[in-house]
Amino acid sequence: MIRLDSTAAGFAHAFDALVNDRREADADVSRDVAMIVGSVRREGDAALHAFTQKFDGHDLNDSGWRIERADCEAALAALDPELRAALELARDRITAYHEKQRPEDMAMTDAHGVRTGARWRAVDAAGLYVPGGRAAYPSSLLMNAIPAKVAGVERLVMVTPTPGGVVNPLVLAAAALVGIDEIWRVGGAQAVAALAYGTDRIRAVDVICGPGNAWVAEAKRQLYGVVGIDMVAGPSEIVVVADRDCDAEWIAADLLGQSEHDPTSQSILFTDDAGFADAVADAVDRAIGTLATAQVARAAWDANGAIIVVPTLDEAMPLVNRLAPEHLELAVADPQPLFDQVRHAGSVFLGRHTPEAVGDYVAGPNHVLPTGRRARFASGLSVLDFMKRTSFLSCDADGLAAIGPAAVTLATAEGLPAHALSVALRLGR
Amino acid sequence: MIRLDSTAAGFAHAFDALVNDRREADADVSRDVAMIVGSVRREGDAALHAFTQKFDGHDLNDSGWRIERADCEAALAALDPELRAALELARDRITAYHEKQRPEDMAMTDAHGVRTGARWRAVDAAGLYVPGGRAAYPSSLLMNAIPAKVAGVERLVMVTPTPGGVVNPLVLAAAALVGIDEIWRVGGAQAVAALAYGTDRIRAVDVICGPGNAWVAEAKRQLYGVVGIDMVAGPSEIVVVADRDCDAEWIAADLLGQSEHDPTSQSILFTDDAGFADAVADAVDRAIGTLATAQVARAAWDANGAIIVVPTLDEAMPLVNRLAPEHLELAVADPQPLFDQVRHAGSVFLGRHTPEAVGDYVAGPNHVLPTGRRARFASGLSVLDFMKRTSFLSCDADGLAAIGPAAVTLATAEGLPAHALSVALRLGR
Lengths: 429, 429
Prior knowledge:
Chain A is α/β, with parallel strands linked by helices and 429 residues long. Helices cover 47% and strands 16% of the residues of chain A.
């Protein structure tokens, strides 16, 4: 953890370092992924079989390539009732929020009778990557699948590695709850390549979403354009802006909630009170030892944590915008004036009683958010990621007579005579 | 040009070949671009200077790095009045269409008083790539710049190569007309890298859009994630669905309007009348020789043109959806029933008096559209490409009491104790 004072000499330099620290994957991953993707494109299921044997340690022909719907239904039926109720609450609230994102078609007719507009349609098929092992989160499955369902995607295909052939019952239960259509026991860059190009067994999809390790993220990046992807994901981060009237233990828990995800996660506190900064630092140290995730949380906090003292919280906001954080908590009594100053953030959590974690699970907005300063240009996952817009144009003879001559002029000036001809012929020229 | 009959033996195989013919850039381009991008990232302006000397044949320190606003204003003042009026009509109609795309903020409050929503903001800066030489189209500049302006982007930066130091006055005039803030005389992959990473002279932008050759397109693809990009662009294509009541010469001109862009462009006609197919093929052959663009148009038509005869036009529509074309003309008296069957297309041109070229210039909808079957998952350029959404969440103590316990349950089940703790502390547990 580094401790900075925005009024101290050298702050600008130290803060620049924090902003530009991308914590990204290296070139080796990129080469490995290109090799894996190429193999799957050329050899299809045979490559999937070989990579799964190598990386996940099981033979797909023995363990089975698919997880059946019946297995998911059984996992759901066997679920602890409290857990099932929590998942259902999450599903219902996430659905309600995302239903408000459905885009409206547009149509307009001008004075010449020229009709223009746009029409939205869902993609035909979406692929969901669900990590295996420690990071197999049913909440992620809900957050990725529900926007696709709300968009109206007809075929939802999940891929997930099952190291040693072992499946995660909680993930299977969530798959039953949201209505996944196919589940394949493959993971890594090879699963992403299979979804993008298709194999004999797995038909190609149009959009691939979902979290994964550096190999999965790099495979999605390399295959962007062959398919649509949700986003280029990097390590996760939170910025908390808090005044001294907050409970230091609450804020410490918020910072640790980010740190416990991964050693590359980043947690940053801005506060206007040096004493409160000390109190939070102490509370983090006390809480961290009590966590089952202490090892990861401590590694992340030590390497990437920061506490920054500013003269006033207003002065923190330009710094926050430079960080363009994935998650931003404004833990003050009246957060709106600070929120009005936010230009770049994935999701904002307003007020003292809105810990980021409640948004991770049950509030409604999506928890798949732009990381690594990408909130400067990118948005969280939404229904729009599973839809596309077709524009349209309709002229009758009168409409074309009104606007066509300008098109002929411009096409001619651009040296495109067939463009000009296609309009001029219809104008009777 | 290939001629197919959808009822003939071997059609499925031949059509598959047409669908899967991606006409894409090769791996050499990818390696070259990675080298250029790396150089610009490390060496900044020195790399820009060297690459411009090498590829564009002029010394930036002699010709000047920037094109000044005054030069653009002078080009606009010197413009032929008819051309200026055509550009102004285009600007006004494109602006009117894109103003309808501005997204609305969203907010909702549930029965527990939990407030959720989303807020849209423009990106801070956008970079526009404008090709030099033959493909320097003022219409493209309008189509790329206007959505950014409508979104509210404060800094619009144009990059354009000026081979031999020569500028295109029509492009400069268009830049003045839409209000570009900075213009730099650099092009190719090196210009894209400069916009993404920034150099001493050129500050980095958040989104890069605009057409370019294979190197430019590959640079954008490689830098996706460092910045936002409009799309992965490939060769352009049109599909025309026409019955025999169309004028064969009109349809031939429409097909050639696509073919004249580039030798890799593709034009495909579906018709339900073999005699009309013959007439169009003959009309293409007659018209092609009259064009100043004959060489390019003939190369494209010979290599990538197709005429496909189907028993009925309804039967063409599933085939059209498999092609997911960038442009689709439905040249029939009543196009709506066919349009209702379109699932995947960038932009659709309805009826006999709506040549695609009128949409390229003055109708209003954007002409930057997904190519190479990407209309399955991607949309044309819009105001949304220059904006991003920040979601928000606000709970008071009562709201958190209502939904927080489910978050604690799920966080605990996922093995994330600090997540659970951050909620539980606020619940007084």
